[in-house]
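Running low. Any example?
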Amino acid sequence: MKNNKGITLTTLVITIVVLLIIAGISIETGNNMIKKSQLENLKTNMLLIKVKGKEYAENANFKLGTSIDTAEDKEERIVAAKAELKGEEITEDSIFNGNINITLEKILEDNVNLIYYYKLTEQNLIDIGITNVKSNKKDGWYIIKYDLKNVNIEVYNTKGFKNEQGTYYTLNELQNIEYNS
């Protein structure tokens, strides 16, 4: 009488193939969940920065006032308004490295319309009450576009999620996408 106490090679191969398929699906699902989590984290950080930036832009707009008599008065009010803004003013385009669709010409053109770009360092974020968020060359800079005339804010991140043109999404663009890939 023959007594089989082991498994056949065919059964072993089928079991391994099934386990590999399950592992592949799990890894792909896990990667998608991680990327979706990173996107949501980026959106949350940018929203927090936008809320704080809006507060500073409103204070700056108040300092600008509504009627300006002389060019000297205008310059003094602009300086006082810019003192309300947080971050380091960007006066050259090297920070963007082509990742964000902003050029030095655009920055200078916007300055005429009371629109300013500021880079936020980790210390700037801490100063405005946002902790445990990285803003540096390696992890990506957070950048605020302050529109003082219209009290409007846009937030950028130089290492966020890329769009079809190869540049990174702004906060407004990120709010309209869901990560599905």
Notes: The chain has five helices and four strands. The first strand starts at residue 88 and ends at 89. Residues 9-174 form one domain. The mean pLDDT is 81.
